[in-house]
Design brief:
alpha/beta, Rossmann fold, eight-stranded mixed sheet, two-stranded antiparallel sheet, globular, binds S-adenosylmethionine, S-adenosyl-L-methionine, EC 2.1.1.77, methyltransferase
Amino acid sequence: MPTPISLSTGPGVVRAYGCRYITPPLKRLLAYTLLHNQQHNHSHRPRLPLFSTLSSFHLPPNLNRLLTGDCPFSGMERYWTGSTNNKNKAMVENLRRDGVITSKKVAEVMSTIDRALFVPDECPPYVDSPMPIGYNATISAPHMHATCLQLLQDNLQSGMHALDVGSGTGYLTACFALMVGSQGRVVGVEHIPELVVESIKNIEKSAAAPLLKEGALSIHVGDGRQGWPECAPYDAIHVGAAAPEIPKPLIDQLKPGGRMLIPVGNIFQDLKVVDKNQDGSINVRTETSVRYVPLTSREAQWQG
Ligand SMILES: C[S@@+](CC[C@H](N)C(=O)[O-])C[C@H]1O[C@@H](n2cnc3c(N)ncnc32)[C@H](O)[C@@H]1O
């Protein structure tokens, strides 16, 4: 199985899916070195955690922070001690300190859903980077999950309906469920059946387990490009994979007043914020440049 985090065309060009696409020159150089090391690891999944490799450089914390640009690697060493839950809280605190999280509710929800329950054992769960989850897919980076929760927070109020397309590990779907609560409804759609099974197991171990049991949260195998009409319309739709264009069924399943986040593009992608007005017209704006795996067919994803 090819690793989704891989070197593509040469030094300075890094493919890491599920993150903002910002690579300052020094960070690119460092990332190249790290990924080059990983390629010689003869493992399809990178077994060397990024920050343990980083720590072998013995960088002073402030220089470390500078090198990694927007990624809060700098505080990572302090995560080595304390319980898993404290480490998750420290990750959230870093995202708050960096201004990615400004909402108290988003911080509470991300503190409550422990990311370690969703990340494969061999990957460091609290590093601000996408991690491979198999099947040519990734769990998106914490800063990306936080950004999406921030942008959708008004459409994830108690009792609202949300759709998570490409739900992968189920991490963000679980966060959505905590945001809307037991009066709300959250649906995840993922086209790899094995990931659906895993994501349900992950959620069952998490603070969102009661919502799954009650039926306020469900995950389904399906082609997310068709949405999930059974529970439409939705106040919030999140698409966790990049589409060449915005699929019409998703626009149709958005409630008037609803908001959709969707990465659009192929090699160069933009995170689009799609707002549906009360008269059914839509406004689309670009939030930021991103890098996601494609929203595609199961067969095309297998082929990489
Ligand atoms: C970057 S991963 C994000 C997963 C999830 N947001 C997370 O962080 O765990 C994108 C996911 O979209 C899924 N995907 C791609 N195309 C799809 C489609 N047509 N229908 C449903 N899921 C799809 C992939 O299998 C993958 O799990």
